[in-house]
Amino acid sequence: MNTTTETAAVERELTIDASPETVWEFLVDPEKAVRWMGLSAQLEPRPGGIYRVEVLPTHVARGEFVELDPPRRLVFTWGWEQSGDGPVSVQPGASTVEIVLTPEGRGTRLRFTHRDLPTPESAESHGHGWDHYLGRLTIAAAGGDPGVDSWLDEKGA
């Protein structure tokens, strides 16, 4: 008997007014990463290294780095430490994030894919989150200040 598991994905493409090298640092350097997403980050940017970001209180993303081709391509697994059984839950390391950086003029084209999400509801929820945080990355990597994350107040931090 053949069984197939349907999965969902989030795909985004955006332009950032910074070089691929600069954008790369905001993806792998813990101090720079928390300027756009999270309260704390433990990042070990090497294959098999830890990817752990406390995005919001009680929302801790965990996975591991899979592929790194600086400053062009980054792949890491993703899930939530306190993941439940609901339609949007993703176990740690169960999904994959791929980021491709391409020079474009004086900036960078960022192609983002979060795949292997278990349901369309999970993809919709993660898409909402990534839209929020990729917007903040665009500001931070370009040298701006995205300010305090507005979701911290909403989530009770």
Low-pLDDT runs of 5+ residues are none
> What does the overall shape look like?
globular
Into which percent range does the helicity of residues fall?
Answer: 25-40%
How many DSSP helices?
Answer: 4
CATH topology: Alpha-D-Glucose-1,6-Bisphosphate, Chain A, domain 4
The major beta sheet can be summarized as: 7 strands, antiparallel
CATH superfamily: START domain
Question: What CATH architecture label applies?
Answer: 2-Layer Sandwich
**Assembly classification:** single chain
Helix/strand class: alpha+beta
Q: Roughly what is the average pLDDT, rounded to an integer?
A: 92
At the first level of CATH, the class is: Alpha Beta
Distance between the termini: 49 Å
Rg estimate, integer Å: 15 Å
**Elements, N to C (H/E):** EHHEEEEEEHH
Number of domains: 1
Strand order of the largest sheet: 1-7-6-5-4-3-2
Give an overview in words:
It is globular and about 45 Å long. The chain contains four helices and seven strands. The protein has helices at 20-28, 30-33, 120-141, 150-154, and strands at 8-16, 40-43, 50-56, 59-69, 73-78, 95-104, 107-117. The protein has 157 residues and is an alpha+beta fold. It has a seven-stranded antiparallel β-sheet with strand order 1-7-6-5-4-3-2. The model has no long low-confidence stretch (mean pLDDT 92).
